[in-house]
Amino acid sequence: MDYSNEPPHSDQLFVQAQQPFNAEPSVASLVEFAYTPEELVYCRNHGPIREFAEEEYTISIKGAVEREISVSIPQLKSAFPKVRVVAALQCAGNRRNEMGAIKPVHGVGWNGGVIANCIWGGVRLRDILIHAGVRADSTLHVCFASFATLCQDDEYYGASIPLEKALRLDDDVLLAFEMNDEPLSAEHGGPVRVVVPGFLGARWVKWLDTLIISSEESPNFYQQRDYKILPPEIETKDQARSVWSKFPSMTSLPLNSAIGSAFKIAPSKLRVKGYAISGGCGNVVAIEVSADNGATWYPSRITYQEGKWSWTLWEAEIPISGSSGEVCARAKDKAGNFQPMAGSWNMRGVAFDAISRIKW
Ligand SMILES: Nc1nc2c(c(=O)[nH]1)N[C@H]1C(S)=C(S)[C@@H](COP(=O)(O)O)O[C@H]1N2
Ligand SMILES: [Mo]
């Protein structure tokens, strides 16, 4: 693989690996901002980061469309209305280290920092697909590909989503060229990346160059093999190989939360801050905090929430006794579900959703 580009340097991210560049901020720093500033947006790569000049970049649309077309970035910007959507990007491996404490897992040792709540600016994928003459057929998929670089497990990076989701106006699927009202940087997939609100980050293909409308999901490794929740009895990569095809590709992530900080503001009072996120669409309705391992739960204040796809920031002040201890938090969704007390284990360490805990 060609890693000739210098990996990005960061003071604010903990670098898990330089090549490919994988880095995350602390949860404590994340929860200080409603919109995650670029310096705190995690980087997750399965191959090298490439830089492209916008003028030389095109996206081709192929497969089950009336017209196979190729669109340049200036055309994309001038031909379709621009929209802004606030949405949380989250890696399926968020909180993997906590699952790894149950039993070792395969994957980058992420803490709770592989999440970012950003304003994404771009055009609606549906507008481009309609322009290319796609037919609204619920059996089809939109396959995204980036041939920008080789990846660790495949010749290119690919993912797909159901065409229905791409066409639904309310689902806000974008081809984004801005993040937080700035041009999208190379690290985060510039000139253009996919934004799939409510779906795991693995489907938000960076350096997007090809869209294929197909009767099959993307054949890419990262759609077909990786990013699947395998049953707990599958413990090794060899065992995984024989069952991959039997399990569905992940789409949305579970209801979740993480505590960023917990500190004493009075001898018997603790202030706790964190984020929460709902699985798929819709906001978290409440976050409860406990200092006695779930025997007593206290409500928290929601300090930020926006639209359908943002994360939720929250704060609580709760009574405590003694000089040290542990607090835990659980999010509740609009259907009344809470996060489970314990999370279940899977080989790749994805979708860990147990109540979050922190020592004080
Ligand atoms: N081309 C390409 N797109 C990609 C990836 C990648 O390795 N290559 N990683 C995916 C994964 S697993 C995640 S979680 C997000 C991370 O986006 P970020 O680096 O901007 O945070 O991008 C996704 N898109
Ligand atoms: Mo990811």
Describe what this molecule looks like in 3D.
The chain has 360 residues and is mostly beta strands. The protein has 2 domains: 3-246, Oxidoreductase, molybdopterin-binding domain (Sulfite Oxidase, Chain A, domain 2, Alpha-Beta Complex), CATH 3.90.420; 256-359, Immunoglobulin-like (Sandwich). Helices cover 11% and strands 32% of the residues. The protein is built from 7 helices and 20 strands. The strands form 5 sheets. The chain has a 5-stranded mixed sheet. Strands 5, 6, 9, 10 and 11 form a 5-stranded antiparallel sheet that branches. The N and C termini lie far apart (44 Å). The mean pLDDT is 95. Molybdenum atom binds at residues 44, 91-93, 201-202. One of its GO terms (cellular component) is mitochondrion.
